[in-house]
């Protein structure tokens, strides 16, 4: 225990996908934390449907990405029903994606996503405390005092160093911290249903119907029903909008009401039946003015809500948590300076802002086309058929579209905690960029670059012959940053160093071998280079050559414990 008077390092409020993702990171690092949720159980409805490749990569770093993928269906096909004659089919995945092992969009219910993540937490010995509500908190010099209320009315007070609000659009954490939630309401009516459907639906594809006014999108769900349909129609009066709450809400919906919303855009071609879940929902586009207030942090829907276009919301929340989790863990363990926490808002707030603007622009275009008469519908069909569809037939355009939707292109180039070192590398991912993935060999086993490097520590990837680095200096660096830094070599097939060289320099793993000569090419390495990889899979520092001075300087500025500050834990992550 620390001597700062706190009971815990972190209290996580909310056990949806965002809170579960954060808890999984804290558990991996051995941080003292609790995760609470006022709901009696996890989501049973499908809710958020798509898990993007970048989220799957991060989840795979704790061993659950492939497990989740096995529960869902994958797709990259977009089927546009613009007239009755024939649909236009666009395959966004028909591109070369050698830099990820998940080159698709996974369609899986939020209930399954939460179940897989909750099972992982349970295997780590973590209990999700349900029917426990945060009712108030106060910040002080050492952290926060939080008041909790249990279902039986019993009150509880705990002292924590950090508070993470993963408690959704109606966030108690955000409201209590008086953080503005800026934005407005969408004007349209939204309806959602998990149903069976009969009609001209292309199996396995995302079917978009825009034959008349309104819009109906069918996603191939598979479980608990074959299809998830989202229908968008009309506008509500401004007076009605003014009376709404300021956040996301859901209302009851009947099957005939949903059928009526689907009839116009499908021209009666699709009949719905056997519903499992129906709801009418209202959406806002809002973002918290800041993601940090002292020792309070916001993530997921507590920080940003927006149009469902592109299926970005849940995925952005998971990635918020991956960005925040390792930073809270390293500061809590006393192996990183407090200033590193400032980078959470600096890195993730612009991502939320860019996402909000992009989804708003896309949705505005959809809204204009679905809210007008038959002339606009005809014009829309002509534009999509003769402009958009031909453009998406070009491989480069499809690649860019997939790059955006998949969230593989998110980068933190302007972050205060990433650095380009010297000598500079001309090619490959720059500081702040995502580390690409590639198949490599570790001993006699197949492995993946990301799985080897996304660890509960910073990982120094030395690219080139093992004997190119001074073993004494590597050993000194590993000793100086014990508990913070791991070392791994990546060499070409056929290029060897002295036997046992990797183990002598402090690496706990065997040298990685790039037999297919793709990993080093992705990293832009011709001879030798050094990549320092963060636990969230982004490049913290990189440079060419074998001089370790730049790496050491970078680590000492941000990750060496302050003088006189002793870590509160023993051992290494």
Write up this protein.
- This protein has 573 residues and is an alpha+beta fold.
- It contains 16 helices and 30 strands.
- Strands 1, 2, 8, 9, 10, 11, 20 and 21 form an 8-stranded mixed beta sheet that branches.
- Residues 237-248, 498-509 and 562-573 have low confidence and may be disordered.
Give a short overview.
The protein has 573 residues and is α+β, with helices and mostly antiparallel strands. 30% of the residues lie in helices and 27% in strands.
Count of DSSP strands: 30
Biggest sheet: strands, sense, closure? 8 strands, mixed
Note the beta-strand portion. 25-35%
Judging by the overall fold, what is the CATH architecture of the largest domain?
3-Layer(bba) Sandwich
> CATH top level of the largest domain?
Alpha Beta
Core attributes:
single chain, 573 residues, alpha+beta, FAD/NAD(P)-binding domain, Alpha-Beta Plaits, Glutaredoxin, 3 domains, eight-stranded mixed beta sheet, 16 helices, 27% strand, globular, disordered C terminus
What secondary-structure arrangement, pairings included, does this model have?
Layout: E1 8-13, H1 17-29, E2 33-37, E3 50-51, H2 53-60, H3 65-69, E4 73-75, E5 77-81, E6 88-91, E7 105-107, H4 110-123, E8 128-130, E9 132-140, E10 143-150, E11 155-165, H5 172-176, E12 181-185, E13 189-198, E14 206-209, E15 215-220, E16 227-233, H6 238-242, E17 249-251, H7 255-266, E18 271-282, E19 284-288, E20 292-293, E21 296-298, E22 304-305, H8 313-332, H9 342-370, H10 374-392, H11 395-405, E23 419-420, E24 439-442, E25 445-448, H12 449-453, E26 458-463, H13 471-480, E27 485-492, H14 501-504, E28 512-514, H15 519-522, E29 529-533, E30 539-544, H16 549-558
Parallel strand pairs: 1-2, 1-11, 2-8, 5-14, 11-21, 23-30, 26-27, 27-28
Antiparallel strand pairs: 3-7, 4-7, 5-6, 9-10, 10-11, 12-19, 13-16, 13-18, 14-15, 15-16, 17-18, 19-22, 20-21, 24-25, 24-28, 26-29, 29-30
């Amino acid at each position: 225990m620390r001597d700062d008077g706190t009971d815990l390092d972190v209290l996580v409020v909310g056990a949806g996908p965002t809170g579960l993702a954060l808890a999984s990171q804290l558990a991996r690092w051995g941080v003292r934390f609790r995760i609470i949720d006022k709901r009696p159980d996890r989501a049973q409805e499908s809710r958020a449907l798509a898990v993007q490749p970048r989220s799957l990569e991060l989840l795979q770093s704790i061993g659950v990405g492939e497990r989740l993928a096995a529960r869902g269906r994958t797709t990259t096909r977009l089927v546009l029903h613009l007239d009755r004659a024939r649909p236009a089919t666009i395959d966004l995945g028909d591109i070369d994606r050698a830099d990820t092992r998940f080159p698709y969009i996974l369609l899986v219910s939020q209930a399954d996503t939460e179940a897989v993540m909750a099972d992982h937490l349970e295997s780590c010995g973590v209990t999700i405390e349900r029917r426990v509500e945060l009712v108030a908190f106060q910040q002080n010099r050492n952290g926060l005092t939080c008041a909790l209320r249990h279902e039986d009315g019993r009150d509880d007070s705990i002292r924590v160093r950090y508070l993470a609000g993963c408690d959704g659009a109606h966030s108690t954490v955000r409201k209590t911290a008086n953080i503005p939630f800026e934005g407005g309401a969408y004007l349209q009516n939204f309806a959602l249903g998990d149903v069976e459907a009969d009609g001209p639906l292309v199996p396995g594809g995302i079917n978009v119907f825009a034959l008349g006014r309104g819009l109906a999108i069918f996603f191939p769900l598979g479980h608990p029903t074959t299809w998830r349909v989202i229908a968008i129609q009309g506008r509500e009066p401004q007076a009605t909008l003014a009376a709404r709450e300021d956040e996301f809400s859901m209302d009851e919906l009947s099957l005939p009401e949903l059928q009526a919303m689907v009839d116009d855009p499908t021209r009666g071609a699709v009949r719905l039946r056997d519903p499992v879940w129906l709801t009418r929902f209202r959406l806002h586009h809002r973002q918290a003015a800041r993601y940090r207030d002292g020792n309070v942090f916001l993530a997921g829907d507590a920080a940003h809500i927006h149009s469902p276009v592109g299926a970005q919301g849940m995925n952005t929340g998971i990635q918020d948590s991956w960005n925040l989790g390792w930073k809270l863990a390293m500061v809590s363990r006393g192996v990183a300076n407090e200033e590193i926490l400032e980078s959470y808002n600096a890195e993730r707030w612009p991502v939320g802002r860019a996402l909000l603007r992009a989804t708003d622009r896309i949705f505005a275009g959809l809204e204009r086309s679905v809210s007008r008469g038959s002339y606009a519908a005809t014009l829309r069909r002509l534009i999509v058929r003769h402009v958009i569809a031909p453009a998406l037939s070009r491989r480069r355009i499809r690649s860019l579209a997939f790059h955006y939707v998949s969230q593989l292109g998110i980068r933190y180039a302007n972050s205060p905690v990433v650095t380009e070192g010297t000598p500079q590398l001309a090619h490959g991912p720059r500081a702040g960029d995502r580390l690409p993935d590639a198949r490599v060999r570790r001993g006699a086993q197949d492995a993946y670059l990301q799985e080897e490097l996304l660890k509960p520590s910073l990982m120094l990837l030395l690219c080139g012959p093992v004997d190119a680095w001074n073993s004494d200096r590597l050993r000194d660096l590993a000793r100086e940053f014990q508990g913070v830094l791991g070392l791994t070599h990546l060499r070409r097939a056929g290029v060897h160093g002295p036997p046992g060289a990797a183990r002598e320099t402090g690496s706990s793993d065997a040298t990685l071998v790039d037999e297919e000569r793709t990993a080093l090419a992705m990293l832009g390495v011709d001879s030798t280079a050094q990549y320092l990889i963060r636990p969230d899979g982004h490049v913290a520092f990189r440079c060419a050559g074998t001089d370790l001075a730049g790496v050491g300087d970078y680590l000492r500025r941000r990750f060496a414990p302050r003088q006189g500050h002793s870590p509160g834990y023993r051992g290494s992550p």
